[in-house]
Design a protein that fits this description.
single chain, mainly alpha, Arc Repressor Mutant, subunit A, 0% strand, elongated, RNA_pol_sigma70_r2, transcription regulation
């Protein structure tokens, strides 16, 4: 549902488009506390929350410049969802994430989430490798840890051709993907 032209969110969006500092101050007061709370409750700290909010503002301003931009929710919900998606993406990227329960997508109330201490990326890789066949363990370790080229692996490990070694690598990666989903 599009917003009305005279709604407070529309007025705030217009202030933001014009670069009015009062608009940024109001947006900060309305949204930052709940974003900070969400980040801190989900393996972050205040500095990370500040950085995340700045990144969110950049995305919001970029989106506001698009001629076809249409806000179909409250501005608070929109800003919070940008921040939430950025934070979850950052957690996945930094391997600090195992699973997060869906947070309330309003700026005023955020449902607390409890996280288990996630295993390190190295521990997860070792656990996945342990589930693979010996041949796959050796092949993937040589490629990814030993940084050996396929041609060298063909010579050293007795594969018939580069093509067969590449096929085996593909099959081993498929095994690893299945093991990681268990």
């Amino acid at each position: 549902m599009p917003m009305l032209a005279d709604s407070p969110d529309t007025q705030l969006l217009n202030q933001l488009r014009m670069g009015n500092n009062q608009g940024f101050d109001m947006l900060y007061r309305q949204c930052y506390p709940s974003i900070e709370r969400f980040v801190v409750q989900n393996s972050g700290n205040q500095d990370e929350a500040k950085d995340l909010f700045q990144e969110t503002l950049l995305i919001l301003l970029t989106n506001l410049e698009a001629p076809d931009f249409l806000l179909t929710s409250s501005l608070k919900t929109y800003v919070f969802s940008i921040s939430k998606n950025l934070w979850l993406k950052q957690l996945k990227k930094s391997a600090r994430w195992t699973s997060l329960e869906d947070a309330d997508e309003t700026c005023s109330v955020v449902a607390p989430t409890e996280l288990e201490t996630p295993p390190s990326a190295y521990e997860r890789v070792l656990a996945i490798l342990a589930q693979l066949t010996i041949r796959c363990q050796a092949l993937l370790a040589a490629i990814f840890f030993g940084r050996k080229k396929i041609a060298n692996i063909v010579e050293d490990d007795g594969y018939a051709s580069v093509h067969s070694a590449q096929n085996q690598k593909y099959k081993c990666l498929q095994q690893a993907r299945k093991a990681s989903k268990k």
